[in-house]
Amino acid sequence: MDVIILQLLNGLDKGSAYALIALGLTLIFGTLGVVNFAHGALFMLGAFCAVTLQRILSLSFETIDPTKTDFLGNPAKIKTPYVESWFGPELGSSIIDWSVPLAILFAIPIMIGIGYIMERGLIKHFYKRPHADQILVTFGLAIVIQEVIKQFYGANPIPTPAPDMFKGSFDFGTLLGFDPNAVIYPYWRLVYFFFAALIIAAVFGFLQFTTFGMVVRAGMADRETVGLLGINIDRRFTIMFGIAAAVAGLAGVMYAPINSPNYHMGMDFLVLSFVVVVVGGMGSLPGAVLAGFLLGILESFSSMNQIKQILPGIDQIIIYLVAIIILLVRPRGLMGRKGVMED
Amino acid sequence: MAILEIKNVGKRFGGLQALSDVNLSVAENTVHAIIGPNGAGKSTLLNCLVGKLIPDTGSVTFQGQSLLGRKPYQINQMGVSRVFQTPEIFAELTVFENVMIPCFAARDGSFQLNALAAVRGQGDIKDTAEAILEDVKLLDKRHMTASSMSRGDKRRLEMAMCLVQEPKLLLLDEPTAGMARADTNNTIDLLKEIKEKRDITMAIIEHDMHVVFSMAERITVLAQGTPLVEDTPENIKGHPKVREAYLGEAQV
Amino acid sequence: MLGLEKKDTSLLIVVAILTMCAPFILNPFPTDSAMAQFNAGYPDLMQRFVIFGIFAIGFNILFGLTGYLSFGHAAFLGIGSYSAVWMFKLLGYNILPGIFLSVITSGLFALLIGYISLRRSGIYFSILTLAFAQMSFALAYSVLTPLTNGETGLQVYNSDPQYFHSDAMPNIPHLFGQEMQSTFKLSMGGWSFDFNTGYYICALIMLVMFYLAIRIFRSPFGLMLKAIKTNQTRLNYTGLNSRPYTLAAFVISGMYAGLAGGLMASMDPLAGAERMQWTASGEVVLMTILGGAGTLIGPVLGAGFIKYFENIFSKINDTVLHQWFAFLPDGIEDFLIAIVHPFVGKGWHLTLGLMFMAIVIFLPGGLVEGGQKIARKFRGGKAKDTTATTDSTPAE
């Protein structure tokens, strides 16, 4: 039992990331009808927002401490981050420590801006082109973004630690009456899960309870009719693209401590997120979230030793296998609507 | 002798009963029109005939063989061709290629892996294709890309593509929809000409009464998913039920 | 000739001449000149030109004709390579059985994957093929280690049986004793040209495959594939079953990919899982689009273009740049180098991505369309009347 709970929990954080990326993909697909292969790159950009902020906050100046010498006998140089000198050592160092959560604030305007530029500058011109063209141009864009990041940050993963407060693990074992340490789960992953749940709830709430959201939902169902009502749907869709980009970016920011960001992390997640979207049903938001968590948990279960002994390597292929089976049995995915991409 | 027999056909979409208890038979070598107000179920009925939709109840037989459960291409191979409301043609191919494709379908069946034969070596196909283009007066445009033609020409091309297969039954879905009066008359002439030259049965779904009354030999009036009356054009014109159905629509 | 139209025959002849003279054409600069780094006439690269040419020609039969965008074709390339290496291990280093098996196995896999994937179209098809390819990659990388040798990659060991190997035969891939590696070097003045056996074998095979592709393009079968691309609804209502047509196209293009994989292994008897990764599938998509999808010569051009620039661009480092801009004042020199630097050397992929985007945005017909546009400009005003007709005959 404890093993099952542990795997369930392990699946949650990856599942959250899948769900968030898939949610954005579906928003873009549902509203704009565009298949965005650059969405993984947005996730990656988010993670690098965290890296960047951490670097900015850690910018330091050097002072010479005459009382100490380094191993060559020269006076030792001491690096003091500017932040510490401005806010005092204690507040300063905790600001640096908290740079990943702070990066959320930093990332939101940046990601919305990037999304806005992407939509107005590129995607807009592809609404009427075939889906293959959309795939190709966004695929090209993904390569470009990826390579630009590689130029600036190099090819190696960059460790981006979470605040010290979340360094430990939470012991679910004692809480649930199992042996201590039977079910331990890092705090940050817990944070990630709750964060993801919050964002998902926010997006759904936004679509459900605001006029803006209502128009967008109507547009997703029938773009032409809404256009006929005299509502400037294109403008709203642009904003929607920005929001989708921000969701992907935030998913990336908070994922940075779980997996050190590298330039190709976007592509790695993208392929799986596409599978998630298709399993959930193209154009279905609840489907994307459901499938994201489902596949994340499934992946985690299949990496259990007991299962790997029977079916070696199953954890590597389970997602694809499930996707193929689902597409064949339920061609529209778990919660897909009729008539989406069916010609 | 009825070539197409529709018995007790019903079709439901969620809460909407699109067709209920449709009985209809189309006699061989006639022009049979199906008319009715918007939402009467004309298109649904047509889609049930060509294999796009499967009716919930009832049967559809063509020359004594059931059409239910067959795919569109199988039904076409049995001798049923369909002209669409907006012409469905191979827009990126040339006019000549457009007509050659149905020729191949008629000669070689639904699939043949003739990957190493040359298209231009198929003399018989070329001759048939040229003959039909001559018939619809498109021979001089045969090297044009189909998408660059006028709407009227596209319609003629689509007709040619259907006729070249020598179908026994030609289904026409509002063949003059959105056309100017002159084009409409041209289309009527074209259809009449076709009818004179070949033994062919036509079932026309149409909105335009002018077209219907200048061509049809039998008319079925469909309203709210069920046939109201079936009669000759003369009798239909004065039929009170028909007036009611159409006036009813006008008031909405 | 050969059952082709005049236009196609001349295209085939031009391609044949170009590939046969490639060792000269690709080495236009004397070996010790500063421009020698732009020479591409060394065996390794020339082999890659034609092998990827085969891969792209095959991919184009699927994507260019039917419009079905497969994102998983690298799987067949990998399967081809593994099959060939297995033949080397079991039978010996003669490349014929290896190539033969690679075409057969990749064809079978394509039949299976295609049968399932082609039940869906559009974006679903792309994602299904992507999923299959990633699954194959994962299988090859870890699960099927006994068959694929996992991370290390499959290679031939001394302990392998090699039943038909005799001591008279070379201990590297060969065709009836002709070693793939053997290169005849011809020096003329400052120039040097490499004539490599492996290259010529690949080139001949590519010409045959190119010829077959032309035949397919001009066949009734090819016409049906084009019809599928433009209007599948009409095709179905014309009594044609699109499924077997697309499946046949998928299998044929899978076999082309398998052949390319087999040849790759024949040039260098090693097969690794990374050959199946989706980035590799993306590469063949790039080649085909860049050259011009749906055209005959496009994929070959695209493959050559990408492989050439991949090699040349990635070799340009800052030292080379300094040499180029040395004539400029220091400040400007450094400035220019700083600008150019991100796009060359290791940044080659950035250039590739930008180029690719530009092509999709401005020139959806690829290099071939670009060439035609330029040619039309050159013909100028007098050709104006004929443009309508040139437009209407699909450019191939």
UniProtKB/TrEMBL annotation, chain A:
Major site of localization recorded for this protein: membrane
UniProt xrefs under InterPro entries: ABC_transp_permease, BCAA_transport_permease
Keyword Lipid metabolism in annotation: no
Molecular function terms from GO: transmembrane transporter activity
UniProt similarity note: Belongs to the binding-protein-dependent transport system permease family. LivHM subfamily.
Localisation: Cell membrane
Protein's UniProt name: Amino acid/amide ABC transporter membrane protein 1 (HAAT family)
Its membrane topology: Multi-pass membrane protein
Gene Ontology biological process terms, A to Z: amino acid transport
One annotated Gene Ontology cellular component of this protein: plasma membrane
Segments passing through the bilayer: 16-35, 42-61, 98-118, 190-216, 237-258, 270-298, 310-329
PANTHER family: ABC TRANSPORTER ATP-BINDING PROTEIN (PTHR11795:SF442), BRANCHED-CHAIN AMINO ACID TRANSPORT SYSTEM PERMEASE PROTEIN LIVH (PTHR11795)
Keyword field: Amino-acid transport, Cell membrane, Membrane, Transmembrane, Transmembrane helix, Transport
Native source species: Litoreibacter meonggei
Stored Pfam families: BPD_transp_2
Alphabetized CDD domains for the sequence: TM_PBP1_LivH_like (cd06582)
Cell membrane found in the keyword field: yes
UniProtKB/TrEMBL annotation, chain B:
Species of provenance: Litoreibacter meonggei
A GO molecular-function annotation: ATP hydrolysis activity
Top-level taxon: Bacteria
Domain ABC transporter: 4-249
Name of the protein in question: Amino acid/amide ABC transporter ATP-binding protein 1 (HAAT family)
Gene Ontology CC, one term: plasma membrane
Keywords: ATP-binding, Nucleotide-binding, Transport
InterPro entries attached to this UniProt entry: AAA+_ATPase, ABC_AA/LPS_Transport, ABC_transporter-like_ATP-bd, BCA_ABC_TP_C, P-loop_NTPase
CDD domains the record matches: ABC_Mj1267_LivG_branched
Pfam families noted in UniProt: ABC_tran, BCA_ABC_TP_C
UniProtKB/TrEMBL annotation, chain C:
Gene Ontology terms for molecular function: branched-chain amino acid transmembrane transporter activity
InterPro entries according to UniProt: ABC_transp_permease, LivM-like
Sequence intervals crossing the membrane: 12-29, 49-71, 91-116, 123-144, 197-217, 244-264, 284-309, 321-344, 350-368
Keyword Transmembrane helix: yes
Stated name of the protein: Amino acid/amide ABC transporter membrane protein 2 (HAAT family)
Keyword field: Cell membrane, Membrane, Transmembrane, Transmembrane helix
Organism: Litoreibacter meonggei
GO terms under cellular component: plasma membrane
Topology within the bilayer: Multi-pass membrane protein
PANTHER family to which the protein is assigned, alphabetical: ABC TRANSPORTER ATP-BINDING PROTEIN, HIGH-AFFINITY BRANCHED-CHAIN AMINO ACID TRANSPORT SYSTEM PERMEASE
Cell compartments where the protein resides: Cell membrane
